[in-house]
Design a protein that fits this description.
Layout (H helix, E strand, L loop, with lengths): L2 E7 L12 H9 L2 E7 L12 E2 L9 E2 L1 H11 L8 E10 L2 H8 L3 E6 L7 H6 L3 E4 L8 H13 L32 E2 L2 E2 L9 H19 L1 H13 L1
Parallel strand pairs: 1-2, 1-6, 5-6, 5-7
Antiparallel strand pairs: 3-4, 8-9
Helix pairs in contact: 3-5, 6-7
The structure holds S-adenosyl-L-homocysteine (SAH).
Length: 235
């Protein structure tokens, strides 16, 4: 079964967007995954296809209506559909490579893209939406966040990445940041490449890369290093 993404959005033209290019785009063309954008406006209320209203209790901005959004969600989710139902949201659990791997191992995802101030809480509760954040900052809508999530997932789907091994050495696997990379020319602006990398000694190279990874993670991401230590202690 191919991985299928259904995205509920006020801006369906944003999809596949950048996911139609490069690695994800070629995978889409091959049918390794599918991307369906459901226009929320189609479920809007009345002559003006209204989708939002002012927040109960007052305050700035608008909120996506529960009745409109639930109809859109229900139109997508068939009874046997077990795909996770996600809402892109800065209040959600921050996305991790581990969660991305879990999504990539499944049949697909249903993604709701918020806009304005967000969505009516009742629809989040009633449709059991998992809130997913892509970081501690505010975007103007969930579409870019959904694109980030899908990009991270699609590259992990079987057959998508040219060199499958490159997926297992990357930053965040084993809670480490990746070591530095070098390529030709051998000397650039007077700078050479670390000698060990041109030694041909694979064991030494692997040790050097591991040391570099650990040193980088220690200095830049002490939080990751602490997490890694915890996991190592457990094993
Ligand atoms: N008022 C909200 C922010 C709304 S931003 C708050 O303070 O929490 C509008 C929409 O953009 C959100 O509903 C969500 O779908 C999306 N969005 C904004 N920032 C995001 C982030 N960091 N991660 C995921 N989605 C985000």
């Amino acid at each position: 079964m191919t991985f299928s993404a259904s995205i509920i959005t006020l801006y369906p033209d944003m999809f596949p967007g950048s996911l139609g290019q490069s690695l994800a785009g070629r995978a889409l063309e091959r049918g390794d995954w599918s991307c369906e954008a459901i226009p929320l406006r189609d479920f809007g209320d009345g002559k003006h296809a209204n989708v939002d209203d002012t927040p109960a209790g007052g305050g700035a901005g608008m909120v996506l209506r529960a009745d409109v959004l639930s109809q859109a969600i229900d139109s997508v989710i068939q009874p046997e559909d077990t795909r996770p139902r996600l809402l892109m949201s800065p209040r959600g659990k921050p996305l991790t490579q581990k969660r991305v791997r879990e999504f990539a191992a499944g049949d697909g995802v249903v993604i709701v893209c918020g806009r304005f101030e967000g969505v009516d809480q009742r629809v989040i509760d009633a449709r059991n939406l998992e809130e997913v954040s892509i970081g501690d900052y505010i975007l103007s809508g969930g579409e870019v966040a959904a694109t980030v999530l899908l990009d991270a997932i699609v590259r992990l789907l079987p057959g998508v990445m040219g060199n499958d091994a490159s997926g297992t050495h990357e930053s965040f696997e084993n809670d480490l940041l990746e070591h530095p990379h070098y390529t030709r020319p051998a000397v650039w602006e007077g700078q050479t490449i670390p000698e060990v990398l041109t030694s041909g000694n694979h064991k030494k190279i692997a040790e050097w890369q591991q040391e570099q990874s650990e040193a980088l993670t220690k200095s830049r991401r002490p939080d990751l290093m602490a997490k890694r230590q915890k996991t190592l202690d457990k094993d």
